[in-house]
Write a structure and sequence with these properties.
By secondary structure, the chain is an all-beta fold. The protein has one domain. 0% of the residues lie in helices and 52% in strands. The chain has no helices and 20 strands. Strands 2, 3, 4, 13, 16, 19 and 20 form a seven-stranded mixed β-sheet that branches. Strands 1-8-5-11-12 form a five-stranded mixed β-sheet, with no helix packed on it. β2 and β3 form a beta hairpin. The protein is globular, with a radius of gyration of 18 Å.
Amino acid sequence: MTRAIGKAIKCDKFAIISKTMKKSRFICRTGAFMMLVAAAGILLVSCVKGGGTNYMVSNAALKVVNLAPDQPAVIVNLSGNALTNSALAYGGYTASYLNFAPGVYTVTSVNAGNTLASVSYNFLASSYYSLFVTANNNSFHNVISNDTFNNFITGQGNAYIRYVNAISDTVNNARVNVTSGTTSVFGDNASFGTVSGFKAVAAGTVNVRASSTAPADTSGSFVVTSDYAYTILLSGVPGSTDVSKRVQIRMLENGSLAK
């Protein structure tokens, strides 16, 4: 029997020191996202919002994202205790970062009682993390990233973006191209499971293109706001006849940096 240990947070008490030595706070704005689907001229745009409670700086904090196209109800456990209160559908994610006591945990993703993937990880106090549950040719993975917001500089007119490649392609890497105006932000040949670092971009329109196996090629544009952090989610199955599982680009809003 498992018990829920996660608690939703706003993260509005976590101090971030910028390189200009100005203190700022990271506020996890429960993640609005836009989604683009590579599907014969079909463009889907959606937005999700939610709430949370105050962050306790002594804890670790984790956001969970289900990027496994064939897993419609994923639950995540930490050493046998349920972190997520309810199952996450494909494309779903926890509305806020969830906090828990720091330490070493066995992180297990489960669907319908069946273990998909399991990994041991040391979560540090006063730190943010993301867990991306991914799938590639019926092989599942728990990809954990340390969301290092402490090197962000606020008040410069910049947003911060990164990407995760969860496109289910066992043969080809994804060519990830991200531009801001005439500036190339990312031009990577990304293997499956890659999570890039955050990069600063000018607030405004960001163009994203993901190229893998045709017809996995898709692209889209998103508007980013200064002093916000975003994650570009690349997922889906190349050539899938199910529109909900085709290659998608999502822009997930992690939160804002308040001065």
